[in-house]
Specification:
The chain has about 260 residues and is α+β, with helices and mostly antiparallel strands. It has six helices and twelve strands. A six-stranded mixed sheet has the order 3-4-2-1-12-11. A six-stranded mixed sheet has the order 5-6-7-8-10-9. Helix 3 runs parallel beside helix 5. It starts with a strand and ends with a strand. It binds one DNA strand of 15 nucleotides through loops.
Length: about 260
DNA sequence: ATGGTCGCACCGCGA
């Protein structure tokens, strides 16, 4: 079974690339972030052409998440659904072939002194509560997405550039560690002790050619899935411009691919 | 040469 997370930075701009990638890689579940489109304008028919259906939680201009599957997803839950007044579409969950898949576009946080930063901290705490109230660590569960948090100095090239910022500081690492402490394991780290492998490179400043990246896109799994953990890899080629004009532009994130023995 | 980007939507904001 193959489960993937990919921040596509606009599904409309990335449509041809994602379609071609789906046809080639055939994941069982693809979690998408930053759709930047309302649900009514999501290109369902395009994905049906390559054998996928989608459940979406979109909004205009910003954010937006979806799960694409071959088989019908079960028990779809939209958002954190915790009673908090929150207009930002950042979470979607569904059971796919017996695995609970939760895909999130975690808040970036802006800067430490912006009002977006406390929202990020609160959102991370709300997600921990979500796991506590709806799930238990004995389930077969994958929490994946663009976490906008790097967990370790190995997961960035230029530590001095990022340390203390919104993507890598004691506070946000602690909040994501709280998610792990609920009963999750970083599947990528489980199989790759070495660093230097990244999932996001800023569009600015020639970050990708310099490989000035961060590993902020994660697939966390519960312990019952550890025994089925086969492979995790980052498809770095998808950060590169493609050959065909229509699908040439790349997202600033690469897909991260989890393969389970099941 | 010490900068350098995207996407959206409307020219500024978010990343």
């Amino acid at each position: 079974m193959r489960i993937v997370t990919w921040n596509v930075n606009s599904i409309r701009v990335r449509l041809q690339r994602v379609k071609a990638w789906l046809a080639a890689e055939q994941p069982d579940a693809l979690c998408l972030q930053e759709l930047k489109v309302e649900d009514g304008a999501f290109p369902h028919a395009e994905f049906e052409e390559v054998g996928y259906r989608a459940v979406t939680h979109g909004q205009k201009t910003y954010n937006g998440v979806a799960i694409l599957t071959k088989d019908e997803p079960q028990d779809v839950v939209i958002g954190l659904d915790d009673g908090v007044d929150d207009s930002q579409a950042r979470l979607i969950a569904a059971t796919v072939n017996g695995v609970r898949v939760i895909g999130g576009y975690f808040p970036n946080g802006g800067t430490l002194d912006s009002d977006k930063y406390p929202y990020k901290l609160a959102w991370l705490s709300r997600l921990r509560k979500y796991l506590e109230t709806r799930h238990n660590p004995e389930e077969d569960l994958v929490l994946c997405g663009d976490f906008n948090v790097a967990m370790d100095e190995r997961d960035m090239k230029n530590v001095d550039k990022w340390r203390g910022g919104v993507l890598f500081n004691e506070e946000v690492v602690g909040r994501v560690q709280d998610l792990l402490d609920w009963g999750l394991v970083d599947s990528f780290r489980q199989l790759h002790e070495d660093g230097g492998m990244f999932s996001w490179w800023d569009y600015r400043g020639l970050s990708f050619p310099k490989n000035d990246g961060l590993r902020i896109d994660h697939l966390f799994i519960t312990k019952p899935l550890l025994g089925q953990l086969k492979n995790v890899r980052i498809d770095r080629d998808q950060r590169k411009k493609g050959a065909c004009p229509e699908g040439s532009k790349a997202s600033d994130h690469a897909p991260v691919i989890l393969d389970l023995d099941r």
